[in-house]
């Protein structure tokens, strides 16, 4: 399974692509950080993000997209930009006809490190180790996006299979 993970942000949006199957180590395909200029008008920034993510989906042809779920932060301005970037990421996956799954930061941390309370340094170290990279992916937005993709391979693949099985059972009972 190939997964494109997105750590949404309006100024810096991390994107990571991995391949793998549940229970096995993943393989790095690529990672990026899409930048937008804070001096630009919001519509231009969102358009740049949309075009960049759409191009990356077309280039890497993932089987699914994993996006960090936006949670409440103290800085309303930051959470608004993150939410807008998240919406663009979800749209890019949906427009390509791909399943899109969102994960909370603690779900990703638990999947990758075993602890939902892991800090950025622990996350980056585990992503580096799990993908067998010679050095940590930089900046942290890229490492976070790769963690999202790994989380989806390990958890989302299983979640999707369970949902498909439940749907088959549901259809079988209604016939």
From TrEMBL:
Domain of life the protein comes from: Bacteria
Compartments reported by the entry: Cytoplasm
Binding site for Mg(2+) 1: 7, 141
Positions that bind Mg(2+) 2: 68
Catalytic-site annotation from UniProt: 7, 68, 141
Top EC category: hydrolase
Pfam family, one: RuvC
InterPro entries: RNaseH-like_sf, RNaseH_sf, X-over_junc_endoDNase_Mg_BS, X-over_junc_endoDNase_RuvC
Known catalytic reactions: Endonucleolytic cleavage at a junction such as a reciprocal single-stranded crossover between two homologous DNA duplexes (Holliday junction)
Keywords noted in UniProt: Cytoplasm, DNA damage, DNA recombination, DNA repair, DNA-binding, Endonuclease, Hydrolase, Magnesium, Metal-binding, Nuclease
GO cellular component, one term: Holliday junction resolvase complex
Cofactor(s) of this protein: Mg(2+)
Recorded GO MF terms: crossover junction DNA endonuclease activity; DNA binding; magnesium ion binding
Note describing how the cofactor binds: Binds 2 Mg(2+) ion per subunit.
Primary localization class, coarse: cytoplasm
EC code(s) of this entry: 3.1.21.10
Annotated GO biological process: DNA recombination; DNA repair
Family, similarity comment: Belongs to the RuvC family.
Oligomeric and partner information: Homodimer which binds Holliday junction (HJ) DNA. The HJ becomes 2-fold symmetrical on binding to RuvC with unstacked arms; it has a different conformation from HJ DNA in complex with RuvA. In the full resolvosome a probable DNA-RuvA(4)-RuvB(12)-RuvC(2) complex forms which resolves the HJ.
Role noted for this protein: The RuvA-RuvB-RuvC complex processes Holliday junction (HJ) DNA during genetic recombination and DNA repair. Endonuclease that resolves HJ intermediates. Cleaves cruciform DNA by making single-stranded nicks across the HJ at symmetrical positions within the homologous arms, yielding a 5'-phosphate and a 3'-hydroxyl group; requires a central core of homology in the junction. The consensus cleavage sequence is 5'-(A/T)TT(C/G)-3'. Cleavage occurs on the 3'-side of the TT dinucleotide at the point of strand exchange.
NCBIfam families: PRK00039.2-1, ruvC
Name this polypeptide is given: Crossover junction endodeoxyribonuclease RuvC
Lineage: Bacteria, Bacillati, Actinomycetota, Actinomycetes, Micromonosporales
Gene: ruvC
């Amino acid at each position: 399974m190939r997964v494109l993970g997105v750590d949404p942000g309006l100024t810096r949006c991390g994107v990571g692509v991995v391949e793998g199957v549940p229970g096995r180590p993943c393989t790095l395909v690529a990672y990026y950080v899409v930048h937008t200029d804070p001096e630009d008008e919001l519509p231009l920034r969102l358009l740049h993000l949309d075009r960049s993510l759409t191009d990356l989906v077309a280039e890497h042809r993932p089987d699914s997209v994993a996006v960090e779920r936006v949670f409440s932060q103290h800085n309303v301005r930051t959470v608004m930009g993150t939410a807008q970037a998240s919406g663009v990421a979800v749209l890019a996956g949906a427009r390509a006809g791909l399943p899109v799954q969102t994960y909370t930061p603690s779900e990703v941390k638990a999947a990758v490190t075993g602890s939902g309370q892991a800090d950025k340094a622990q996350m980056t170290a585990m992503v580096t180790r799990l993908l067998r990279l010679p050095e940590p992916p930089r900046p942290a937005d890229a490492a976070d996006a790769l963690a999202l993709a790994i989380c989806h391979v390990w958890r989302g693949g299983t979640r999707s299979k369970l949902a498909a099985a439940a749907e088959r059972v549901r259809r079988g009972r209604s016939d």
